Amino acid sequence: MRCISEGHVMCDASVRKECYEEASETVEELKREIEDLKAEVAFLRSRYPTDHQHQLSGRSHGPRFTDVVLVAAVDGCEGGPSMTVPVHSAILSPVFKAMLENDMEESQSGTIKISDASYDALQAFVDFLSVEELLDEQMAYELLVLAEKYQVEHLKAYCEMILVSKLNWDNSIINYAFAHQHNAKHLLEAALSLIMDNMFEFPEHPKYSELAKKDPSLVREIFVALVAKQFNRCGK
């Protein structure tokens, strides 16, 4: 009887150990799931904060809350099932704004039906508009650096396009140096072209002395390009 009793005790201990290990694994899995959920919530809040959160953050990158709903056909066909994509009217194109401002059904309901686009396409469209609205000049610089470092060529090209569109005489030298540092070919060519178009003002530019001290090789490179351009003009 004693052996049987001891066997039961050993069996019970083994069962308890297994139960404890299973419970521990379950707890760990739940903890991981909770952390994943927290991360997802944090991401969603950062991407789509409420108006109250937007005011508290003090950020001025643009409107984050939504006041318009775009309705897309899931299968891209009118009459099929539909899904909605919330968006803020401030980032919409003039066509959408005209629909909302005129005395139309859309202006009354705040809902615009897009029957010729799938939900995924419309969501990607709105995401692009949101990114473009947030992509100011400073953000374009920062994203270009990341795109160059991690070889995201399409993002780098897009950032270059933004910076070229904002290029002017005042920031031409800064952009030339930046483009040279980060191998941004299109921005480099555009900045150099602008500098050469104002070649007689180049030495008087407020950033000229700073560039000459920081990177004199770039100044020499610009002057070589200027001389080459003049030589080609004389040759022709």
UniProtKB/TrEMBL annotation:
Residues in coiled coil: 17-47
Transmembrane segments: none
InterPro entries found in the cross-reference section: BTB/POZ_dom (IPR000210), SKP1/BTB/POZ_sf (IPR011333)
Any one Pfam family match given in the protein's UniProt record, by short name: BTB
BTB domain segment(s): 66-138
Record PROSITE patterns: BTB (PS50097)
Biochemical pathway: Protein modification; protein ubiquitination
Keywords: Coiled coil
Name of this chain's protein: BTB domain-containing protein
Native species: Corymbia citriodora subsp. variegata
